[in-house]
Amino acid sequence: MALSFDSDIECLKIKNDGIETTTSQEQRKVEESIGQIYSACLARNNLKETFPLHRVRHLNYVQKSLKQLSANFECLDASRPWLCYWMIHALNLLGDKIPKGQQLNISQFLLSVQAETGGFCGNVGHLPHLATTYAAISAIASLDFEECYDIVDIESLRRFIQDMHNEDGSFSMHKDGELDVRGAYCAAVVANLCGIYSEELFNKTGEWIATCQTFEGGFGSQPGREAHGGYTFCSLAALILLNKTHLIDVDRLLDWAVHRQMQFEGGFQGRTNKLVDGCYSLWQGGIFPLMDHILSSRKPESKENKQWLFSQVALQDYILFCCQHPNGGLVDKPGKSRDHYHTCYCLSGLSIAQHSFSSTTVRGDKSNVLELTHPIFNIVLSKAEKMARYFHNKAKICEVP
């Protein structure tokens, strides 16, 4: 928020009350590196000219990787559907059009990791997993052609989700695997996009997610765990899809969420007393459109507000000044390496910060505007709607005797 502050920006930095800790030392280092960037910006006469989104550089970085990844990505060999989703969604947000041939090739790869028993695997021969199933369906939804949608085996997908559902309402990530709120979110998103949602399939799931809300207000991975931005986003989005938001303390959640935006940096931290990280631009920033949906349904007059309940300008400052790698791609924070995970979620958070209701709030030139991402699915809005409509209509056709 330093660039939006008219007085001494030093007052926004950490106060350690004279007690130095490892946490305060790391926080001070981050503030120093970001402070140098912000001070240089404030010294310029025309701030508007200093806010470019390096669109072409980011496009080149992602387009090149979508064709061929280096050997350095071997560590993500079990996460190939994720790589597809991160890159395709980033290109969509940047307004790029992926050639049809390349889209069909991607869909054929995703077909090769679809398990016979239902769901999608991280790579050929692996176990089906709810996270990679979510990533694969999100990647398919981010493509443009119905031929890509048709690779999904709907009936086996339904059985897979049902098999991952536990008696208490939670979802295991894979057979005999760990369970946490990510599973519930991934299952709910996939079921909604593919037209297979039913109350029976998600019996007790909303109630289980509600038990994961902590005394702070956010949500942990499981009951009794620490509140965390990623788990909170997954929990809230799933509860909206399940129509179960009445089960949680919304006021306590909002109080926790607004305090995760860093005063000096403008970006978000994932947990209390942690460092800013560009990926939480989506995981934390994305909470606010969801919160607005809940609040406006309870108090229709609140729709008159034109902004989300966080500083959208400050978040854009952080992403544009501190998270853009000079060679394309986006990063966690200054000094970190670029990667496709942070490129995807920094751009997603930037889209959230730019778009609220029917208005836009754009830091810098209008050419910085990204495509609008769906606040629940984190897929470009028009593409999420297109896939959901396709499977909904297909289900209707199948029901005709």
Core attributes:
globular, single chain, mainly alpha, 401 residues, two-stranded antiparallel sheet
| Assembly state of the chains shown | single chain
Q: Whole-Å distance between the termini?
A: 60 Å
Helix and strand element order: HHHHHHHHHHHHHHHEEH
Biggest sheet character: 2 strands, antiparallel
Explain the overall architecture.
Helix 5 runs parallel beside helix 8 (181-193) and helix 10 (229-242) packs parallel to helix 13 (287-298). The longest helix has 21 residues, at 22-42. The chain is an all-alpha fold and 401 residues long. Helices cover 48% and strands 1% of the residues. The chain has a two-stranded antiparallel sheet with strand order 1-2. A hairpin with a 2-residue loop joins strand 1 (355-356) and strand 2. The chain contains 16 helices and two strands. The chain has helices spanning 22-42, 55-67, 80-93, 100-112, 130-141, 146-149, 154-164, 181-193, 205-210, 229-242, 250-258, 280-283, 287-298, 312-322, 340-354, 381-399; strands at 355-356, 359-360.
